[in-house]
Amino acid sequence: MTRLLPCLLLLLGTAITPVFAKSSAPSSKYGLVIHGGAGVIARDELTPAREAEYRARLAEALDAGYAVLERGGAALDAVLAAVTILEDSPLFNAGKGSVLNADGICELDASVMEGRTLGAGAVAGVHRIKNPVRLARDVMEKSGHVMMVGDGAEQFARTLDYEMMAPDYFQTDHRRQQLQKAKELEKAKAKKSAALQPEDAYLLRQFKWGTVGCVALDQAGNLAAGTSTGGMTNKKYGRVGDTPIIGAGTYANNATCAVSATGWGEYFIRAGVARDISAQMEYAGRSVAEAARATMAKVGALGGDGGVIALDARGNLAMEFNSPGMYRAHRFTGQARFVAIYAEPATP
Amino acid sequence: MTRLLPCLLLLLGTAITPVFAKSSAPSSKYGLVIHGGAGVIARDELTPAREAEYRARLAEALDAGYAVLERGGAALDAVLAAVTILEDSPLFNAGKGSVLNADGICELDASVMEGRTLGAGAVAGVHRIKNPVRLARDVMEKSGHVMMVGDGAEQFARTLDYEMMAPDYFQTDHRRQQLQKAKELEKAKAKKSAALQPEDAYLLRQFKWGTVGCVALDQAGNLAAGTSTGGMTNKKYGRVGDTPIIGAGTYANNATCAVSATGWGEYFIRAGVARDISAQMEYAGRSVAEAARATMAKVGALGGDGGVIALDARGNLAMEFNSPGMYRAHRFTGQARFVAIYAEPATP
Prior knowledge:
2 copies of one chain form a homodimer. The first copy, chain A, is an alpha+beta fold. Chain A has 10 helices and 13 strands. The first copy, chain A, has an 8-stranded mixed sheet with strand order 4-3-2-6-5-1-12-13. Chain A has a 4-stranded antiparallel sheet with strand order 8-9-10-11, with helices on one face. In chain A, helix 2 packs antiparallel against helix 3 and helix 9 packs across helix 10. Chains A and B meet through helix 1, strand 3, strand 4, helix 5 and helix 6 of A and helix 1, strand 3, strand 4, helix 5 and helix 6 of B. Strand 4 of chain A pairs antiparallel with strand 7 of chain B, so a sheet runs across the interface.
C-alpha cells in the first residue's frame, strides 16, 4: 500500500512538496536581477528615445519585484511581479510583443523554479495566455506536473479560469514586419538568390532575441527564477527553445544559485546552461561569476550566443553574455539601482 | 555580415554541426545498455511466460544494437536500432503499447543525444509517429532545432514523408484497461470515497512505467543516448515528463557519459537526472557508478522513483534504480549478454 501512495498522489493531482535542498540561512542582503534579452542592437540602431523606453520598462519591472522583497515577500512572487511587467510590455519578446511564428501567431513558452523546494513549472507553445509565467507557476503549484505543452496547457488554464486572450492581443506591427522580412529571406534562400541587404541587419538581429527573465533572493534566503519568451521569428513545427526547459533556460536551487537564460535556445539546451552553472558551484566549488563565465564560454565554443543572469543565496550575481549587449538590471539592499543595455557598464 | 550568418543558418534550417566535446580515444571495448522501464512488478505478479516475453524482447533489442556496433556502426545508429524494436513491441510504454492519456489516445515523447557533437533532438506530444525516437533524430539532424512539440512536430515529419499511423495502431487492450481503472480511481477520489483495492495494485504500479531507452559506445569511442515513452496513464493537459527533456531523461557527452532515464518524470526533471550524472563526472571527478548512485539518491530524497542507465567512454556502466526492479540488459565486447528485471542480478 505504501508503494501505491506515490502513484495515487500524482495521478490525483497533488501539488509537489518534497524537499531536499537546504534552505539557506537568512541573508541580510536581498534583491533581484532581470533581463530583457541578449543579442541586441548596435548603439547606432537604438534611438535615444527607444533606449529610454527600454530603460524605463526595465526599471519598472525591477522596482515591482524589489517592492515584493522589501515587504518580506517570497522570491518567486518577486519573479512573477517583474516578469509579468516585461511580458505586458510590447518592447520585449515575451507575452505582448512576442515574435510571430511561421503561421503568423505568437507561440509562448515560460518556466519558473523555486530554490527551496526544487519545485518547477513550465508551459510551451501556448497562444492565448496573457502571462505564461503565471501559468508556469500554476503548473508547478496546482497540477502535480512540471511541464504542459500546447492546447493541453491552455485547457489546464481554463480550469483555473484564466482569461483567454485573442491572438492579436500579442501582436505588434514591428513583429509583423520582422516575420515578413524573415519569409522574404527564406524565399530568396530557397531560390538560391539570397542577397542579404545591410538594412536587413537590424531586423535580422532581433529575430530570436528579447526573452525576459528574473532571478530573486528574498529576506528568508530563498532563491527563485523565471523566464518567458515568444521564441524565434518564423519558427515552424512547434519548435521549442530553452526557455521552458528546466535546467536549460531556468534553474533554481538554494544550495547553489538561481539562473535565467536568454539567447539561441538550441545551443542553450545542448549546453544545459542553467543547470551547468549550478553544477559547477555544487561540484567544483566555483563562484556564481566563475561558473556563469565558464558556461557561456561553452555556449560560445558550440557556436551559440546569448546570455544569463545568475544569483547565489548570498546575493552574489553574474550577468554574463557573449552578444553585443543584454538588457539587464538589478537592485539589492543598500545598492543603487543598475540598468544597462550594452556590454560596458552604464549608469542608471 | 558575419554577425548575420548564425541567424540565417538557423532561420533557414541548417543542421547543427559545431562541436566542443573532444572525441575520446578509440576504445577497444564497445557495447550498449538498454532499459525497458523501472518501477515494475513484484515477482509474484509476473508470470513465467510473461517474464520470458520481456526477456526475449530485451535480448532482441540488445542484439540489434550490438550488431550495429560490431560492424563498426555509430553509437547513435545502435541506439536507434535498439529503441525502435522496444517501441514496436506492445510490452513497453513507448510507441506501440504506450499508455493512454485522459482522452484515450497515445501521446508520445522521445529524445536522442550524441556525445561527440552534443547534438540533440526531441519531440513531445506526438500521436501518429510509429517511432518517435527516429523523429527525434531527424529533428537533430535535419531541422536546425532541438525540440518540437505536438502537431508541429508531426508537420515536420510529413515534410520527411513519415507514414502517419492511425491512432489505434498504438493501443492495446491492456492499456485501455489501465486507463479505465485510472479514471475509476479518479472519480472515487473526487467523491472522497477512494477505497483502493489490493487487486488494483498491479495496474496502478504500471501507470507510469515502461519508458524505454539505450546508451551505446561505438568502436570510435563515441557515446549516444536515446529515450522514448508514452508517458503516464490518464495524463491530461499536454503533460510532458522527463523523456524529451535534454539533461533530464537523456544526455550524452563523450567527455563524461551517456544517460537514459526512466521513472516518475516530474522528479527527474526537477533533479535534472541525466545532466547531474554527467556534471558529477565532469566537475567532481566521480565515476559513472558513483555519480549515478548519488543522483538517484537525490531523486529518492525528493520523493521520486525510477532508474537510469549510464555508460562512460571506457565502457564502464551503471544501472541504478530505487524501484523494485528495472527491465535492463547490456552487451559488451568479450562479455556475456546480461538481461535482468528484478533488483538482484539475474542470469541471461
